[in-house]
Amino acid sequence: TARVASQGWLKYRLTDSTDLEQYVYYTQLINPKFDEHPVVQRILKDTKGKPGAFGTAMQSLPDAVVQEIKQGRFD
């Protein structure tokens, strides 16, 4: 878990605990490539430099998007 969290810091400079928690959750339980999904890419761009915003946005993802990420559908 700590290794995955450190990847979130290195890759996206996530420092807030909520941001890192969501990063680890999605990496380990949903899809390790979740950050390649267009919706997640937009969230990462929009929340850059705003501690806590990434985690909040990821918690608010619609179920349909979460299912797409689980299934690896990144159209």
Q: What's a quick, concise take on this entry?
A:
The chain is mostly helical and 75 residues long. It is 68% helix and 0% strand.
Q: What percent of residues are in strands? A: under 5%
Number of helices: 5
Described by its quaternary structure, the protein is: single chain
Distance between the termini: 28 Å
Order of helical and strand elements: HHHHH
Q: How many strand segments?
A: 0
- Approximate shape: globular
**Helical fraction:** 55-70%
Largest sheet: none
* Structural class determined from secondary elements: mainly alpha
Radius of gyration computed on alpha carbons:
11 Å
The mean pLDDT is: 96
Give the number of domains. 1
Poorly predicted runs of 5 or more residues: none
Question: How are the SSEs ordered, and which strands pair?
Answer:
Blueprint: H1 2-12, H2 17-30, H3 38-47, H4 53-59, H5 63-71
Helix pairs in contact: 1-2, 2-4, 3-4
Key structural traits:
single chain; 75 residues; mainly alpha; 0% strand
How would you describe what is shown here?
68% of the residues lie in helices and 0% in strands. It is mostly helical. It has one domain (2-71). The longest helix has 14 residues, at 17-30. It starts with a helix and ends with a helix.
